[in-house]
């Protein structure tokens, strides 16, 4: 039999299937709350002005496309560090490399952990981003789950989370969303971060923070607060970062992975493993997006323009959240949540009915991309969802 006959059919990505269904729907007033990209009030996902300008500069100035190296654009990584780590940016016990998006950073970090301690478990909250568990499994890590958010009550479940994590062994990894939790939008407040950090330290867990939406939840500084608390508490930690949302560069695949170690020798060995793993995954990360982010961050005017555009995206999402909550008190939790996503407290049957009867498209678990709403859609959206709320 042909070799490739050994391959089992894999299920189609449900979100991509949803895009197809949405396109095929002839209703003019259909609403797409599926795929997680920012949209403006006209439904577009535009290239940011700061990014367009930096791309023009890059086109004019770039004098070579020769190889850079497995760690990518070092200037890009260095310029991100103050944004991510604040006053602790120059910590010599931390090292970072550019990666193809946040996904590349997650995969690289998980393989690094698996190489360091093959029998460790990585703890992932329920619910979490749909790609977290498959990525950990692809890196051959054992995946364990803990509670995180209750869809019906719309509450963060820190007590249940820590109760579940009581089973973790020292040296296990704990994956945490830095801000704007996907899919729940649940906000982790400073008091919660402090509890989690104290637990992590006491139990000897290694936090792996996934920061994919910095600046889209509360603000650039605010959205890094949890990460900074964790990194101060834990001697060893990993951070996977994405610029794909906060710079609107999705398809350019812009990200970074940092590792924090207990001493310089361990850090140097960790970095050498990050580079050798990267060589076998993608050899070198794609340059364009990281070079553009470097140009934006190194030019004061472009940087100010980016921060203003980022604030505009964040304010639009927060405004939509307030509008939904003000129209329907049973959805009040949406105004407390942050970032692009919320997980509506409705059943799978409701998700199907909303699609078939109202042309409102969302993921099967009732996750919505809040930015997919136009302000004028809010009353119709809320009226349709309201029927299904408890
Ligand atoms: N982490 C989370 C929580 C995400 O939601 C996403 C993107 N949906 C990523 C990481 C990966 O982002 P990227 O497109 O940069 O790979």
TrEMBL record:
Recorded family membership: Belongs to the class-I pyridoxal-phosphate-dependent aminotransferase family.
Cofactor(s) listed: pyridoxal 5'-phosphate
Record InterPro entries: Aminotransferase_I/II_large, Asp_trans, PyrdxlP-dep_Trfase, PyrdxlP-dep_Trfase_major, PyrdxlP-dep_Trfase_small
Name used for this protein in its record: Amino acid aminotransferase
Annotated keywords: Aminotransferase, Pyridoxal phosphate, Transferase
Boundaries of every Aminotransferase class I/classII large domain copy: 29-384
Superkingdom of the source species: Bacteria
Self-association and partners: Homodimer.
GO molecular function: transaminase activity
EC number annotated for this UniProt entry: 2.6.1.-
